[in-house]
Model the fold of this input.
Amino acid sequence: MTDAERTPTQIDRIADAWVDTLAELHPSLATYIGRSEFNDRYGDYSPAGHDALAAAARATLAELEAATPEDFIDEVTQQDLVGELRLDLDLYDAKWHLRDVNVIASPAQDLRAVYDIMPKDTAEDWAVVATRLGALPGAIAGYVETLRAGIAEGIVPARRQVIEVATQIARYTADTGFFAEFVSNAAPAEGQLPASVARELEDNANAARVAYDGLAAFLTSELAPAASEEDAVGREYYALQSRRFLGAEIDLDETYDWGVQELARMVAEQESIANEIKEGATVEEAVAFLEEDTSRKLYGTDALQKWMQETSDKAVAELGRTHFDIPEPIRRLECMIAPTKEGGIYYTGPTDDFSRPGRMWWSVPEGVESFDTWRELTTVYHEGVPGHHLQIAQAVYNRAELNSWRRLLAGSSGHAEGWALYAERLMEQLGYLDDPADRLGMLDGQRMRAARVVLDIGVHLKKPRLDGEGTWDHAYALDFMRRNVNMPDEFVNFEVNRYLGWPGQAPSYKVGQRIWEQLRDDVQEREGDAFSIKAFHKRALDMGGVGLDTLRWAFTR
Done:
Protein backbone atom coordinates (compact mmCIF):
# COMPACT_ATOMS: atom_id res chain seq x y z
CA MET A 1 0.00 0.00 0.00
CA THR A 2 1.03 3.61 -0.42
CA ASP A 3 2.13 5.20 2.85
CA ALA A 4 -0.13 8.26 2.68
CA GLU A 5 -3.89 8.19 2.41
CA ARG A 6 -6.03 11.11 1.33
CA THR A 7 -7.80 13.01 4.11
CA PRO A 8 -11.46 12.52 3.17
CA THR A 9 -13.45 15.52 2.00
CA GLN A 10 -17.23 15.74 2.09
CA ILE A 11 -17.41 14.40 -1.47
CA ASP A 12 -15.01 11.58 -0.59
CA ARG A 13 -17.28 10.65 2.33
CA ILE A 14 -20.35 10.61 0.09
CA ALA A 15 -18.54 8.43 -2.45
CA ASP A 16 -17.25 6.08 0.25
CA ALA A 17 -20.73 5.82 1.75
CA TRP A 18 -22.05 4.88 -1.70
CA VAL A 19 -19.55 2.02 -1.81
CA ASP A 20 -20.84 0.89 1.61
CA THR A 21 -24.41 1.03 0.32
CA LEU A 22 -23.58 -0.98 -2.79
CA ALA A 23 -21.69 -3.55 -0.72
CA GLU A 24 -24.70 -4.09 1.54
CA LEU A 25 -27.33 -4.14 -1.21
CA HIS A 26 -25.17 -6.07 -3.70
CA PRO A 27 -23.00 -8.49 -1.68
CA SER A 28 -21.53 -10.16 -4.78
CA LEU A 29 -20.04 -6.79 -5.71
CA ALA A 30 -18.63 -6.53 -2.19
CA THR A 31 -16.94 -9.91 -2.69
CA TYR A 32 -15.41 -8.68 -5.94
CA ILE A 33 -13.70 -5.74 -4.23
CA GLY A 34 -12.56 -7.88 -1.29
CA ARG A 35 -15.06 -6.89 1.37
CA SER A 36 -15.92 -10.07 3.24
CA GLU A 37 -18.58 -8.97 5.71
CA PHE A 38 -21.38 -9.87 3.28
CA ASN A 39 -19.83 -13.03 1.79
CA ASP A 40 -22.46 -15.29 3.33
CA ARG A 41 -25.41 -13.83 1.44
CA TYR A 42 -26.87 -12.47 -1.78
CA GLY A 43 -28.67 -9.23 -2.49
CA ASP A 44 -32.37 -8.95 -3.22
CA TYR A 45 -32.94 -9.73 -6.90
CA SER A 46 -36.69 -9.15 -6.68
CA PRO A 47 -38.39 -5.95 -7.88
CA ALA A 48 -38.28 -4.69 -4.28
CA GLY A 49 -34.49 -5.04 -4.31
CA HIS A 50 -34.22 -2.97 -7.49
CA ASP A 51 -36.54 -0.36 -5.97
CA ALA A 52 -34.35 -0.13 -2.86
CA LEU A 53 -31.19 0.34 -4.93
CA ALA A 54 -32.84 3.08 -7.01
CA ALA A 55 -34.02 4.89 -3.86
CA ALA A 56 -30.50 4.78 -2.45
CA ALA A 57 -29.10 6.12 -5.73
CA ARG A 58 -31.54 9.05 -5.70
CA ALA A 59 -30.62 9.95 -2.13
CA THR A 60 -26.89 9.80 -2.88
CA LEU A 61 -27.32 11.85 -6.06
CA ALA A 62 -29.13 14.61 -4.18
CA GLU A 63 -26.45 14.70 -1.49
CA LEU A 64 -23.64 14.74 -4.04
CA GLU A 65 -25.15 17.51 -6.16
CA ALA A 66 -25.49 19.69 -3.05
CA ALA A 67 -21.83 19.26 -2.05
CA THR A 68 -19.05 21.75 -2.88
CA PRO A 69 -15.76 20.35 -4.24
CA GLU A 70 -12.64 21.20 -2.25
CA ASP A 71 -10.08 20.35 -4.96
CA PHE A 72 -9.66 18.93 -8.44
CA ILE A 73 -9.93 15.34 -7.19
CA ASP A 74 -13.32 16.23 -5.75
CA GLU A 75 -14.38 17.82 -9.02
CA VAL A 76 -13.57 14.63 -10.92
CA THR A 77 -15.36 12.45 -8.35
CA GLN A 78 -18.45 14.65 -8.40
CA GLN A 79 -18.53 14.87 -12.19
CA ASP A 80 -18.20 11.12 -12.65
CA LEU A 81 -20.37 9.80 -9.84
CA VAL A 82 -23.20 12.20 -10.65
CA GLY A 83 -23.11 10.93 -14.23
CA GLU A 84 -23.11 7.30 -13.15
CA LEU A 85 -25.97 7.71 -10.67
CA ARG A 86 -28.10 9.51 -13.24
CA LEU A 87 -27.46 6.74 -15.73
CA ASP A 88 -28.33 4.07 -13.14
CA LEU A 89 -31.65 5.81 -12.57
CA ASP A 90 -32.27 6.18 -16.31
CA LEU A 91 -31.78 2.43 -16.73
CA TYR A 92 -34.06 1.75 -13.76
CA ASP A 93 -36.75 4.02 -15.18
CA ALA A 94 -36.41 2.22 -18.52
CA LYS A 95 -37.02 -1.04 -16.58
CA TRP A 96 -34.00 -2.78 -18.08
CA HIS A 97 -33.80 -5.04 -15.01
CA LEU A 98 -37.13 -6.64 -16.00
CA ARG A 99 -35.49 -8.10 -19.12
CA ASP A 100 -31.98 -8.77 -17.82
CA VAL A 101 -31.14 -12.15 -19.38
CA ASN A 102 -28.07 -12.65 -21.54
CA VAL A 103 -25.38 -15.25 -22.11
CA ILE A 104 -22.51 -13.55 -20.30
CA ALA A 105 -23.34 -10.93 -17.67
CA SER A 106 -26.83 -11.24 -16.23
CA PRO A 107 -27.89 -12.58 -12.80
CA ALA A 108 -28.10 -16.05 -14.34
CA GLN A 109 -24.29 -16.07 -14.56
CA ASP A 110 -23.44 -13.67 -11.74
CA LEU A 111 -25.12 -15.75 -9.04
CA ARG A 112 -22.77 -18.62 -9.87
CA ALA A 113 -19.65 -16.64 -10.77
CA VAL A 114 -19.20 -15.18 -7.28
CA TYR A 115 -17.84 -18.55 -6.10
CA ASP A 116 -14.85 -18.19 -8.43
CA ILE A 117 -13.50 -15.30 -6.34
CA MET A 118 -14.61 -16.15 -2.81
CA PRO A 119 -11.85 -16.99 -0.27
CA LYS A 120 -11.45 -20.76 0.02
CA ASP A 121 -8.21 -21.21 1.96
CA THR A 122 -9.59 -22.31 5.33
CA ALA A 123 -12.39 -24.42 6.74
CA GLU A 124 -14.00 -21.19 7.93
CA ASP A 125 -13.92 -19.85 4.36
CA TRP A 126 -15.70 -22.97 3.13
CA ALA A 127 -18.31 -22.62 5.87
CA VAL A 128 -19.08 -19.13 4.51
CA VAL A 129 -19.29 -20.58 1.00
CA ALA A 130 -21.77 -23.17 2.24
CA THR A 131 -23.91 -20.49 3.86
CA ARG A 132 -24.01 -18.43 0.66
CA LEU A 133 -24.92 -21.55 -1.31
CA GLY A 134 -27.85 -21.94 1.06
CA ALA A 135 -28.99 -18.43 0.13
CA LEU A 136 -28.80 -19.03 -3.61
CA PRO A 137 -32.34 -20.47 -4.02
CA GLY A 138 -33.78 -17.31 -2.48
CA ALA A 139 -31.75 -15.12 -4.82
CA ILE A 140 -32.96 -17.10 -7.82
CA ALA A 141 -36.54 -16.82 -6.60
CA GLY A 142 -36.15 -13.02 -6.49
CA TYR A 143 -34.69 -13.00 -10.00
CA VAL A 144 -37.61 -15.06 -11.31
CA GLU A 145 -40.04 -12.65 -9.61
CA THR A 146 -38.41 -9.74 -11.45
CA LEU A 147 -38.55 -11.52 -14.82
CA ARG A 148 -42.21 -12.43 -14.21
CA ALA A 149 -42.91 -8.74 -13.61
CA GLY A 150 -41.30 -8.11 -16.98
CA ILE A 151 -43.59 -10.65 -18.64
CA ALA A 152 -46.60 -8.93 -17.07
CA GLU A 153 -45.48 -5.56 -18.44
CA GLY A 154 -44.40 -6.87 -21.82
CA ILE A 155 -40.75 -5.96 -21.15
CA VAL A 156 -38.91 -9.14 -22.10
CA PRO A 157 -35.52 -10.26 -23.44
CA ALA A 158 -34.87 -11.89 -26.78
CA ARG A 159 -35.88 -15.54 -26.99
CA ARG A 160 -32.42 -16.48 -28.29
CA GLN A 161 -30.83 -15.28 -25.03
CA VAL A 162 -33.37 -17.11 -22.90
CA ILE A 163 -32.79 -20.44 -24.63
CA GLU A 164 -29.00 -20.08 -24.59
CA VAL A 165 -28.98 -19.28 -20.86
CA ALA A 166 -31.13 -22.35 -20.15
CA THR A 167 -28.49 -24.38 -22.00
CA GLN A 168 -25.75 -22.85 -19.86
CA ILE A 169 -27.63 -23.74 -16.69
CA ALA A 170 -27.79 -27.38 -17.77
CA ARG A 171 -23.99 -27.38 -17.75
CA TYR A 172 -23.93 -25.83 -14.27
CA THR A 173 -26.24 -28.45 -12.80
CA ALA A 174 -25.11 -31.62 -14.60
CA ASP A 175 -23.58 -34.45 -12.59
CA THR A 176 -20.23 -33.38 -14.03
CA GLY A 177 -21.11 -29.66 -14.00
CA PHE A 178 -19.97 -26.72 -11.90
CA PHE A 179 -21.73 -27.42 -8.62
CA ALA A 180 -20.85 -31.11 -8.52
CA GLU A 181 -17.19 -30.47 -9.28
CA PHE A 182 -17.08 -27.48 -6.94
CA VAL A 183 -18.17 -29.58 -3.97
CA SER A 184 -16.04 -32.59 -4.87
CA ASN A 185 -12.95 -30.37 -4.97
CA ALA A 186 -13.78 -28.48 -1.78
CA ALA A 187 -10.87 -28.48 0.66
CA PRO A 188 -8.96 -25.92 2.69
CA ALA A 189 -5.30 -25.27 1.90
CA GLU A 190 -4.33 -27.61 4.72
CA GLY A 191 -6.26 -30.54 6.17
CA GLN A 192 -9.83 -31.61 5.54
CA LEU A 193 -13.19 -29.98 5.96
CA PRO A 194 -15.03 -30.73 9.21
CA ALA A 195 -17.79 -33.25 8.56
CA SER A 196 -20.50 -30.74 9.44
CA VAL A 197 -19.16 -28.19 6.91
CA ALA A 198 -18.76 -30.85 4.21
CA ARG A 199 -22.33 -32.02 4.77
CA GLU A 200 -23.75 -28.49 4.70
CA LEU A 201 -21.74 -27.71 1.60
CA GLU A 202 -23.05 -30.77 -0.24
CA ASP A 203 -26.66 -30.23 0.90
CA ASN A 204 -26.66 -26.56 -0.09
CA ALA A 205 -24.91 -27.22 -3.40
CA ASN A 206 -27.61 -29.77 -4.22
CA ALA A 207 -30.25 -27.20 -3.28
CA ALA A 208 -28.49 -24.69 -5.54
CA ARG A 209 -28.60 -27.20 -8.40
CA VAL A 210 -32.32 -27.69 -7.86
CA ALA A 211 -32.87 -23.92 -7.77
CA TYR A 212 -30.91 -23.41 -10.98
CA ASP A 213 -32.83 -26.23 -12.66
CA GLY A 214 -35.99 -24.43 -11.56
CA LEU A 215 -34.70 -21.25 -13.17
CA ALA A 216 -34.04 -23.15 -16.40
CA ALA A 217 -37.56 -24.57 -16.30
CA PHE A 218 -38.99 -21.08 -15.84
CA LEU A 219 -36.90 -19.76 -18.71
CA THR A 220 -38.04 -22.45 -21.12
CA SER A 221 -41.67 -22.84 -20.05
CA GLU A 222 -42.68 -19.27 -19.10
CA LEU A 223 -40.20 -16.70 -20.34
CA ALA A 224 -39.29 -18.18 -23.73
CA PRO A 225 -42.90 -18.25 -25.00
CA ALA A 226 -43.31 -14.62 -23.95
CA ALA A 227 -39.87 -13.48 -25.10
CA SER A 228 -39.20 -11.35 -28.14
CA GLU A 229 -38.34 -12.82 -31.52
CA GLU A 230 -36.29 -9.67 -32.12
CA ASP A 231 -32.62 -9.63 -31.18
CA ALA A 232 -32.52 -5.86 -31.70
CA VAL A 233 -33.21 -3.68 -28.64
CA GLY A 234 -33.81 -0.48 -30.63
CA ARG A 235 -32.21 2.95 -30.56
CA GLU A 236 -33.56 4.16 -27.19
CA TYR A 237 -32.39 1.17 -25.17
CA TYR A 238 -29.16 1.01 -27.16
CA ALA A 239 -28.27 4.65 -26.46
CA LEU A 240 -28.65 4.02 -22.72
CA GLN A 241 -26.48 0.92 -22.84
CA SER A 242 -23.85 2.69 -24.95
CA ARG A 243 -23.63 5.44 -22.31
CA ARG A 244 -23.38 2.76 -19.64
CA PHE A 245 -20.45 1.00 -21.25
CA LEU A 246 -18.56 4.08 -22.45
CA GLY A 247 -19.27 6.63 -19.78
CA ALA A 248 -19.71 8.92 -22.78
CA GLU A 249 -22.36 9.93 -25.28
CA ILE A 250 -21.50 9.29 -28.90
CA ASP A 251 -23.15 9.79 -32.27
CA LEU A 252 -24.23 6.22 -33.02
CA ASP A 253 -24.63 6.74 -36.76
CA GLU A 254 -21.25 8.44 -37.15
CA THR A 255 -19.66 5.70 -35.04
CA TYR A 256 -21.19 3.01 -37.24
CA ASP A 257 -19.76 4.67 -40.36
CA TRP A 258 -16.38 5.04 -38.66
CA GLY A 259 -16.51 1.37 -37.71
CA VAL A 260 -16.97 0.37 -41.35
CA GLN A 261 -13.94 2.48 -42.30
CA GLU A 262 -11.84 1.19 -39.38
CA LEU A 263 -12.65 -2.40 -40.33
CA ALA A 264 -11.45 -1.75 -43.88
CA ARG A 265 -8.23 -0.25 -42.48
CA MET A 266 -7.61 -3.31 -40.30
CA VAL A 267 -8.18 -5.64 -43.26
CA ALA A 268 -5.66 -3.70 -45.38
CA GLU A 269 -3.08 -3.80 -42.58
CA GLN A 270 -3.60 -7.55 -42.15
CA GLU A 271 -3.20 -8.14 -45.88
CA SER A 272 0.13 -6.33 -45.84
CA ILE A 273 1.44 -8.44 -42.95
CA ALA A 274 0.13 -11.67 -44.50
CA ASN A 275 2.50 -11.05 -47.38
CA GLU A 276 5.39 -10.76 -44.89
CA ILE A 277 4.50 -14.14 -43.39
CA LYS A 278 4.22 -15.89 -46.74
CA GLU A 279 4.91 -14.05 -49.95
CA GLY A 280 1.78 -13.52 -51.99
CA ALA A 281 -0.48 -15.04 -49.34
CA THR A 282 -3.94 -13.80 -48.51
CA VAL A 283 -4.84 -13.31 -44.84
CA GLU A 284 -6.65 -16.67 -44.85
CA GLU A 285 -3.64 -18.39 -46.42
CA ALA A 286 -1.26 -16.81 -43.89
CA VAL A 287 -3.49 -17.94 -41.05
CA ALA A 288 -3.64 -21.47 -42.45
CA PHE A 289 0.14 -21.47 -42.80
CA LEU A 290 0.58 -20.41 -39.15
CA GLU A 291 -1.98 -22.92 -37.92
CA GLU A 292 0.16 -25.70 -39.40
CA ASP A 293 3.18 -24.50 -37.43
CA THR A 294 3.29 -26.75 -34.36
CA SER A 295 6.01 -24.60 -32.78
CA ARG A 296 3.36 -21.92 -32.32
CA LYS A 297 0.80 -24.21 -30.70
CA LEU A 298 -0.10 -25.19 -27.15
CA TYR A 299 -1.94 -28.40 -26.35
CA GLY A 300 -4.22 -28.62 -23.35
CA THR A 301 -5.26 -26.11 -20.72
CA ASP A 302 -2.28 -26.87 -18.46
CA ALA A 303 0.12 -25.78 -21.18
CA LEU A 304 -2.04 -22.74 -21.90
CA GLN A 305 -2.04 -21.66 -18.25
CA LYS A 306 1.73 -22.10 -17.92
CA TRP A 307 2.41 -20.09 -21.08
CA MET A 308 0.04 -17.31 -20.00
CA GLN A 309 1.78 -17.02 -16.63
CA GLU A 310 5.30 -17.04 -18.06
CA THR A 311 4.39 -14.45 -20.71
CA SER A 312 2.70 -12.23 -18.15
CA ASP A 313 5.55 -12.45 -15.65
CA LYS A 314 8.06 -11.47 -18.33
CA ALA A 315 6.02 -8.43 -19.38
CA VAL A 316 5.66 -7.26 -15.79
CA ALA A 317 9.38 -7.63 -15.10
CA GLU A 318 10.56 -5.91 -18.28
CA LEU A 319 8.04 -3.07 -18.46
CA GLY A 320 8.50 -2.43 -14.74
CA ARG A 321 12.18 -1.72 -15.44
CA THR A 322 11.65 0.50 -18.44
CA HIS A 323 8.34 2.12 -19.27
CA PHE A 324 6.12 2.02 -16.19
CA ASP A 325 6.42 2.47 -12.45
CA ILE A 326 4.85 -0.77 -11.20
CA PRO A 327 4.53 -0.98 -7.39
CA GLU A 328 5.37 -4.34 -5.83
CA PRO A 329 1.77 -5.45 -5.00
CA ILE A 330 0.79 -4.93 -8.64
CA ARG A 331 3.59 -7.15 -9.91
CA ARG A 332 1.66 -10.26 -8.89
CA LEU A 333 -0.84 -11.35 -11.54
CA GLU A 334 -2.31 -14.85 -11.56
CA CYS A 335 -3.26 -16.52 -14.84
CA MET A 336 -6.17 -18.95 -14.42
CA ILE A 337 -8.27 -21.40 -16.41
CA ALA A 338 -11.88 -20.53 -15.57
CA PRO A 339 -14.07 -23.30 -14.09
CA THR A 340 -16.73 -22.70 -16.75
CA LYS A 341 -16.66 -23.56 -20.45
CA GLU A 342 -18.63 -20.71 -21.98
CA GLY A 343 -15.82 -19.06 -23.94
CA GLY A 344 -14.29 -15.66 -23.28
CA ILE A 345 -11.19 -14.28 -21.60
CA TYR A 346 -11.53 -11.79 -18.77
CA TYR A 347 -9.80 -10.08 -15.87
CA THR A 348 -10.83 -9.72 -12.23
CA GLY A 349 -9.17 -7.02 -10.16
CA PRO A 350 -7.36 -7.44 -6.85
CA THR A 351 -9.03 -6.99 -3.50
CA ASP A 352 -8.53 -3.71 -1.69
CA ASP A 353 -5.67 -5.18 0.38
CA PHE A 354 -4.20 -7.23 -2.52
CA SER A 355 -4.71 -10.46 -0.53
CA ARG A 356 -6.41 -11.72 -3.70
CA PRO A 357 -4.30 -10.57 -6.64
CA GLY A 358 -5.50 -9.50 -10.03
CA ARG A 359 -6.37 -12.52 -12.16
CA MET A 360 -6.58 -13.25 -15.86
CA TRP A 361 -9.21 -15.94 -16.61
CA TRP A 362 -9.62 -18.08 -19.72
CA SER A 363 -12.97 -19.84 -20.13
CA VAL A 364 -12.20 -22.55 -22.68
CA PRO A 365 -15.24 -23.92 -24.56
CA GLU A 366 -15.96 -27.63 -24.59
CA GLY A 367 -13.92 -29.35 -27.28
CA VAL A 368 -11.24 -26.68 -27.70
CA GLU A 369 -7.91 -28.34 -26.91
CA SER A 370 -5.26 -26.46 -28.89
CA PHE A 371 -4.25 -22.81 -28.82
CA ASP A 372 -2.13 -20.65 -31.13
CA THR A 373 0.44 -18.51 -29.33
CA TRP A 374 0.70 -16.07 -32.25
CA ARG A 375 -3.02 -15.40 -31.93
CA GLU A 376 -3.08 -15.03 -28.16
CA LEU A 377 0.13 -13.19 -27.25
CA THR A 378 -1.59 -9.82 -27.53
CA THR A 379 -4.45 -11.14 -25.36
CA VAL A 380 -2.05 -11.59 -22.45
CA TYR A 381 -0.91 -7.98 -22.82
CA HIS A 382 -4.55 -6.87 -23.12
CA GLU A 383 -5.69 -8.59 -19.92
CA GLY A 384 -2.44 -8.14 -17.98
CA VAL A 385 0.32 -5.56 -18.28
CA PRO A 386 0.16 -2.93 -19.67
CA GLY A 387 -3.57 -3.59 -20.11
CA HIS A 388 -6.31 -4.22 -17.56
CA HIS A 389 -4.12 -5.28 -14.67
CA LEU A 390 -1.86 -2.24 -14.76
CA GLN A 391 -4.83 0.09 -15.12
CA ILE A 392 -7.18 -1.43 -12.56
CA ALA A 393 -4.64 -2.52 -9.95
CA GLN A 394 -2.96 0.90 -10.11
CA ALA A 395 -6.26 2.51 -9.18
CA VAL A 396 -6.72 0.10 -6.26
CA TYR A 397 -3.21 0.95 -5.08
CA ASN A 398 -3.62 4.73 -5.29
CA ARG A 399 -4.87 5.49 -1.78
CA ALA A 400 -2.87 8.72 -1.76
CA GLU A 401 -5.36 10.44 -4.05
CA LEU A 402 -8.49 8.38 -4.52
CA ASN A 403 -11.48 7.50 -2.37
CA SER A 404 -12.72 3.91 -2.29
CA TRP A 405 -15.31 4.45 -5.02
CA ARG A 406 -12.71 5.89 -7.41
CA ARG A 407 -10.23 3.10 -6.58
CA LEU A 408 -12.55 0.11 -6.60
CA LEU A 409 -15.74 0.70 -8.55
CA ALA A 410 -15.61 3.75 -10.79
CA GLY A 411 -15.03 3.54 -14.51
CA SER A 412 -16.57 2.05 -17.60
CA SER A 413 -15.96 -0.72 -20.08
CA GLY A 414 -14.89 1.88 -22.63
CA HIS A 415 -12.31 3.29 -20.24
CA ALA A 416 -10.93 -0.13 -19.31
CA GLU A 417 -11.29 -2.00 -22.61
CA GLY A 418 -10.30 1.04 -24.63
CA TRP A 419 -7.13 1.29 -22.57
CA ALA A 420 -6.46 -2.42 -23.08
CA LEU A 421 -6.65 -2.07 -26.88
CA TYR A 422 -4.55 1.06 -26.64
CA ALA A 423 -2.05 -1.04 -24.65
CA GLU A 424 -1.92 -3.67 -27.39
CA ARG A 425 -0.84 -1.05 -29.91
CA LEU A 426 1.62 0.32 -27.37
CA MET A 427 3.25 -3.12 -27.09
CA GLU A 428 3.61 -3.17 -30.86
CA GLN A 429 5.32 0.23 -30.71
CA LEU A 430 7.63 -1.02 -27.94
CA GLY A 431 8.80 -3.95 -30.09
CA TYR A 432 6.99 -6.81 -28.36
CA LEU A 433 5.13 -7.75 -31.54
CA ASP A 434 7.98 -7.53 -34.04
CA ASP A 435 7.30 -11.07 -35.24
CA PRO A 436 4.85 -10.63 -38.17
CA ALA A 437 2.83 -13.59 -36.89
CA ASP A 438 2.33 -11.93 -33.52
CA ARG A 439 1.37 -8.67 -35.23
CA LEU A 440 -1.13 -10.57 -37.36
CA GLY A 441 -2.59 -11.99 -34.17
CA MET A 442 -2.88 -8.51 -32.68
CA LEU A 443 -4.55 -7.24 -35.84
CA ASP A 444 -6.85 -10.27 -35.81
CA GLY A 445 -8.11 -9.05 -32.45
CA GLN A 446 -8.25 -5.40 -33.55
CA ARG A 447 -10.15 -6.41 -36.69
CA MET A 448 -12.61 -8.38 -34.56
CA ARG A 449 -13.17 -5.34 -32.32
CA ALA A 450 -13.78 -3.12 -35.36
CA ALA A 451 -16.19 -5.69 -36.78
CA ARG A 452 -18.05 -5.70 -33.48
CA VAL A 453 -18.69 -1.95 -33.71
CA VAL A 454 -20.38 -2.47 -37.06
CA LEU A 455 -22.23 -5.65 -36.06
CA ASP A 456 -23.46 -4.44 -32.67
CA ILE A 457 -24.81 -1.09 -33.85
CA GLY A 458 -26.00 -2.66 -37.10
CA VAL A 459 -28.11 -5.35 -35.45
CA HIS A 460 -29.56 -3.34 -32.59
CA LEU A 461 -30.38 -0.26 -34.70
CA LYS A 462 -31.51 -2.42 -37.66
CA LYS A 463 -29.08 -0.77 -40.02
CA PRO A 464 -29.05 -1.73 -43.72
CA ARG A 465 -26.76 -4.69 -44.36
CA LEU A 466 -23.41 -3.92 -45.96
CA ASP A 467 -24.37 -6.06 -48.95
CA GLY A 468 -27.58 -4.09 -49.44
CA GLU A 469 -29.79 -7.15 -48.90
CA GLY A 470 -32.19 -6.06 -46.17
CA THR A 471 -31.28 -5.17 -42.58
CA TRP A 472 -28.92 -6.73 -40.04
CA ASP A 473 -30.15 -9.88 -38.30
CA HIS A 474 -28.66 -12.89 -36.47
CA ALA A 475 -27.91 -14.92 -39.60
CA TYR A 476 -26.13 -12.03 -41.32
CA ALA A 477 -24.28 -11.15 -38.10
CA LEU A 478 -23.00 -14.73 -37.79
CA ASP A 479 -21.87 -14.83 -41.41
CA PHE A 480 -20.25 -11.38 -41.09
CA MET A 481 -18.36 -12.45 -37.97
CA ARG A 482 -17.14 -15.69 -39.55
CA ARG A 483 -15.74 -13.66 -42.45
CA ASN A 484 -13.90 -11.26 -40.15
CA VAL A 485 -12.32 -13.45 -37.47
CA ASN A 486 -10.11 -16.50 -37.43
CA MET A 487 -11.58 -18.36 -34.47
CA PRO A 488 -13.12 -21.79 -33.82
CA ASP A 489 -16.82 -21.75 -34.60
CA GLU A 490 -17.63 -22.39 -30.92
CA PHE A 491 -16.10 -19.01 -30.11
CA VAL A 492 -17.83 -17.27 -33.00
CA ASN A 493 -21.26 -18.54 -32.00
CA PHE A 494 -20.73 -17.49 -28.40
CA GLU A 495 -19.41 -14.08 -29.40
CA VAL A 496 -22.36 -13.26 -31.65
CA ASN A 497 -24.85 -14.36 -29.00
CA ARG A 498 -22.97 -12.19 -26.51
CA TYR A 499 -23.29 -9.10 -28.71
CA LEU A 500 -26.97 -9.67 -29.31
CA GLY A 501 -27.70 -10.00 -25.59
CA TRP A 502 -25.34 -7.35 -24.21
CA PRO A 503 -25.97 -4.28 -26.40
CA GLY A 504 -23.36 -1.55 -26.41
CA GLN A 505 -20.65 -3.52 -24.62
CA ALA A 506 -18.74 -4.97 -27.57
CA PRO A 507 -18.19 -1.61 -29.36
CA SER A 508 -16.87 -0.07 -26.15
CA TYR A 509 -13.47 -1.68 -26.80
CA LYS A 510 -12.72 -0.10 -30.15
CA VAL A 511 -14.66 3.10 -29.50
CA GLY A 512 -12.86 3.39 -26.16
CA GLN A 513 -9.51 2.95 -27.92
CA ARG A 514 -10.52 5.66 -30.37
CA ILE A 515 -11.29 8.09 -27.54
CA TRP A 516 -8.04 7.23 -25.69
CA GLU A 517 -6.01 7.85 -28.86
CA GLN A 518 -7.88 11.09 -29.63
CA LEU A 519 -7.22 12.29 -26.09
CA ARG A 520 -3.49 11.47 -26.28
CA ASP A 521 -3.19 13.23 -29.64
CA ASP A 522 -5.07 16.28 -28.34
CA VAL A 523 -2.81 16.51 -25.29
CA GLN A 524 0.30 16.07 -27.44
CA GLU A 525 -0.81 18.82 -29.81
CA ARG A 526 -1.58 21.13 -26.90
CA GLU A 527 1.71 20.49 -25.05
CA GLY A 528 3.98 20.36 -28.07
CA ASP A 529 7.65 19.65 -27.28
CA ALA A 530 6.84 19.39 -23.58
CA PHE A 531 4.64 16.33 -24.16
CA SER A 532 5.80 13.12 -22.47
CA ILE A 533 3.96 9.88 -23.28
CA LYS A 534 5.10 8.36 -19.98
CA ALA A 535 3.78 11.36 -18.05
CA PHE A 536 0.50 11.20 -19.99
CA HIS A 537 0.07 7.55 -19.05
CA LYS A 538 0.86 8.20 -15.40
CA ARG A 539 -1.56 11.10 -15.15
CA ALA A 540 -4.32 9.06 -16.81
CA LEU A 541 -3.78 5.92 -14.71
CA ASP A 542 -3.48 7.86 -11.46
CA MET A 543 -6.98 9.16 -12.09
CA GLY A 544 -8.43 5.68 -11.60
CA GLY A 545 -11.47 4.46 -13.42
CA VAL A 546 -13.75 7.18 -14.80
CA GLY A 547 -16.19 7.51 -17.65
CA LEU A 548 -14.61 8.60 -20.90
CA ASP A 549 -16.47 11.92 -20.92
CA THR A 550 -15.03 12.60 -17.46
CA LEU A 551 -11.55 11.60 -18.65
CA ARG A 552 -11.67 14.04 -21.53
CA TRP A 553 -13.09 16.77 -19.29
CA ALA A 554 -10.34 16.23 -16.69
CA PHE A 555 -7.56 16.67 -19.27
CA THR A 556 -9.01 20.00 -20.35
CA ARG A 557 -9.07 21.42 -16.80
About this structure: The chain has two domains: 10-240, 243-509. The mean pLDDT is 94. Residues 10-240 form one domain.
